[in-house]
Design brief:
The protein contains 9 helices and 13 strands. By secondary structure, the chain is of the alpha/beta class. Keywords: Flavoprotein, FMN, Monooxygenase, Oxidoreductase.
Length: 293
Amino acid sequence: MKIRFGIGLGAETAPGQLADIVDRLESSGVDSLWFSELVYTPAVDPTVGMAYALARTTRLKVGTSVAVLPGRHPVLVAKSLASLAALAPKRVLPAFGLRSAIPAEREVFVVPDGKRAEVFDESLKVLRAALIEDSASYAGRFFTVGGAAVAPRPVPPLDIWLGGSSAAAFRRIGALADGWLGSFLTPEEAARGRAAIERAAADAGRRIDADHFGISLAVADAELPEELVAAVRRRRPDVDPGQLVAAGWDALHRQLDAYLEAGLTKFVIRPVGTAPLDGFIDRFVDELVSRQN
């Protein structure tokens, strides 16, 4: 199975930094660059960032980690993805989630109250149909589409990955997605998540490729900043923050070994702390590019 490492950009990466970042990643053998959905931050919009990065490169892949799908019309999302894939075949890696991780941003992705999960499921079905069918039609509770003809259709079809870590998310991934990009999970939890997804896929008469399981991980230069520890504890009060965020690169390597043992092979690594991004990229290349196969 192919082991790959990509870099995830944080909330404080300003658009003006992107050209230098993209050029360095393209020349240094980094597999991929990932853009998060962070509406109320300086971070560039994921679709805009992907288009910009693809236009400057010939090798680097780009992805979303993760973009919110419910609240967007899936045919319009399909058109954007198809356009990107036509400009840069085999270099577009879309991953979607149920909702924003930032509560203040959730109001901009409008769906009927209490129906976000149902809207997500329908959105995924419409998105996939629009990307693979010459004339896609769908009639559901939230979307009605007649003869959607998104062109040019990506060949081969794009793989659609999803985030999430709940039992419902695992069922959705198994039934509707092509891969999983988890986060804030220990290796043991990730192993259980992979098993649950594989069971859900089998129940749906499907199969997720063995190397389509990944996770987003954060690494600090050394000790974890106090504010980060507090934030992690708010999100996962049941887990030691050091199990979820690596305090240094040696700790990250130990975590990676455990995730590989759990069956994960795709990793999005993002920096935390105040160290310059240039230094993080240099260290990423030194530490991780050689671990790819």
